[in-house]
Design a protein that fits this description.
Elements: E1 14-20, E2 30-36, E3 42-44, E4 48-55, E5 60-68, E6 74-82, E7 89-91, E8 98-100, E9 105-112, E10 118-128, E11 134-144, H1 150-153, E12 156-162, E13 167-173, H2 178-183
Parallel strand pairs: 4-11
Antiparallel strand pairs: 1-2, 3-5, 5-9, 6-8, 6-10, 7-9, 10-11, 12-13
Length: 191
């Protein structure tokens, strides 16, 4: 025969339960069960990681700590990016799953890899296995286009209008061509 017990603690402490079995035998067995009520208290050292202005095509890093202030170990099952621009950010090494002992913390590092200029945001969703608790952090980054040095920006332009198509073509005499056009939102086409 088997007995199924349910344990629903009201507070975070150790509980000792004794089960006495009465039978028609000479001995009445006693079973002692020890259970601990868990109080989950998991925090982030920072809710929002703000990356410094980052040049398009380069990257910058940031981090926060996941802190287990609970009296029991906690299993972090996943760390995923979501929100508006998750593709501009990365979780370095994707450390999940991992276990945090009671009163332990772990640093999670992120990289901001902008591919265009602007302001970008993503959510960090952290799932905790034993609970319905989900932590959420936020990543924010600003991407800028690098300034072109004066020595690189000296160039001359010759315009060739084409009135029938309401367009013009031009000739650039410079070592920078495609990059300069990208910076100013122009389409570059090599002839």
């Amino acid at each position: 025969a088997s007995i199924e017990l349910s344990f629903t603690p009201k507070t975070a402490k150790e509980y000792i339960i004794k089960l006495n079995f009465t039978s028609n035998s000479k001995t009445n067995p006693e079973v002692t069960i020890t259970a601990t009520g868990a109080e989950y208290n998991i925090e982030l050292s920072e809710r929002t990681v703000v990356f410094a202005n980052t040049t398009v095509g380069s990257s910058s890093g940031g981090s926060f700590d996941i802190i287990n202030k609970s009296n029991v170990e906690v299993n972090i099952s996943s760390i995923k990016l979501s929100g508006d621009n998750p593709d501009m950010f990365a979780v370095n090494g994707n450390p999940a799953p991992f276990t945090l002992a009671a009163n332990q913390s772990k640093k999670v590092e992120f990289t901001f890899n902008p591919t265009s200029a602007g302001n970008f945001e993503a959510k960090v969703d952290i799932m905790i296995s034993e609970t319905d608790v989900e932590l959420q952090g936020e990543l924010k980054g600003s991407a800028v286009v690098s300034d072109v040095e004066d020595s690189e920006s000296d160039f001359s332009v010759k315009l060739y209008p084409n009135p029938s198509q309401q367009t013009f073509s031009f000739e650039v005499n410079s070592s920078i061509t495609e990059n300069l056009c990208d910076m100013h939102g122009l389409e570059w086409q090599s002839l």
